[in-house]
Design brief:
CATH class: Alpha Beta
Distance between the termini: 31 Å
Number of helices: 10
Structural class: alpha/beta
Radius of gyration: 18 Å
Order of helices and strands: HHHEEEHEEHEHEHEEEHHH
Strand order of the largest sheet: 1-2-3-6-7-8-9-10
Number of domains: 1
Helix content: 25-40%
CATH superfamily: Alpha/Beta hydrolase fold, catalytic domain
CATH architecture: 3-Layer(aba) Sandwich
Strand content: 15-25%
Shape: globular
Number of strands: 10
Length: 292
């Protein structure tokens, strides 16, 4: 087998971040555990389902899910924003609500609108994220109201993680797992989310997306704050639950990113901290930890 060319290698690295569905591998998903505690099995299944949401073709999603022991029973897309409602084939009362993250250029206009706006459930949230979520909210509420699930897990990667927090603030659930989620709202919003749901915020290595928007604590109620208990997928420790010791930090991460662009010798590659955001790397790191 011939080695990939340099251009093919670089294309694959960029696809890991910006075309996650192209690198989805089939897994036999573990059964989800009920209850609020963090479970590696839950993290693995939900991270994989987050990656699957980036697949735009419903038939491909369904066939891939069937091989993994699940099925898609509802979905809605608008402007490439998307949610899927998924059900286990072996435990049909186990449902997952999964949100797609940033998937096209228009979504970056949502991402860049960092002005805080009031949230009905309490506190303030990222104006761009809230505007995007509103495009999905009615279809989601209609579906869950029509056929309420007995057990519901809510999950999302990147922008989808912010959507998962908004949805969890509105719909009863077993627990919430976000992957590579940016800060989505104010301290009061974080309190409201944590009062309503058990939220597990999963961060892979030095994922730079988790450092934005900046947390400027002296701004108090107009500051941004992360939501939930952190689980860090570190290089030196596969899964560090509720350990914030080595998490990426805004100023340090961006200084290192700028330094890598200026001084780095990997021309044309995504920055390591951006590559850490790739859904497939979340999946592979959790899979590695689950096998230990």
């Amino acid at each position: 087998m011939s080695m990939p060319s340099e251009s093919e290698r670089l294309a694959r690295l960029w696809q890991l971040v910006f075309k996650p569905a192209a690198h989805l591998t089939t897994l036999e998903l573990p059964t989800l555990h009920t209850g609020p505690e963090f479970h590696t099995d839950n993290a693995l299944a939900l991270a994989w389902l987050c990656q699957l949401t980036y697949e735009k073709d419903p038939e491909t999603r369904q066939s891939t899910l069937n091989r993994a022991g699940m099925e898609e029973i509802a979905h809605h897309s608008t402007q490439n924003l998307h949610w899927s409602r998924l059900r286990s084939l072996t435990a049909p009362d186990h449902h997952v609500l999964a949100f797609r993250g940033t998937a096209d250029l228009q979504h970056w206009f949502f991402n860049l609108n960092t002005l805080l706006t009031s949230w009905p459930g309490g506190g303030k949230v990222h104006g761009g994220f809230a505007s995007a979520y509103k495009r999905l909210a009615k279809s989601l509420t209609d579906d869950l109201s029509c056929t309420p699930p007995k057990h519901l897990w809510i999950t999302g990667h990147s922008l989808g993680g912010a959507f998962a927090l908004f949805a969890a603030n509105e719909h009863p659930n077993e627990s919430v797992y976000t992957f590579g989620c940016p800060r989505a709202g104010s301290p009061r919003f974080a309190e409201a989310c944590e009062a309503a749901s058990r939220i597990h915020r999963v961060v892979h290595n030095q994922d730079i997306v988790t450092t934005i928007p900046y947390e400027i604590s002296f701004l108090k109620e107009i500051a941004y704050k992360h939501v939930g208990s952190v689980t860090h997928l570190r290089q030196d420790c596969p899964i560090a639950v509720e350990d914030e010791t080595h998490l990426p930090h805004s100023r340090k991460s961006w200084r290192e990113a700028v330094h890598a662009m200026i001084e780095g010798d990997h021309v044309g590659e995504p920055l390591p901290a951006l590559l850490d955001h790739a859904p497939s790397l979340y999946v592979s790191r959790i899979l590695e930890a689950a096998s230990l």
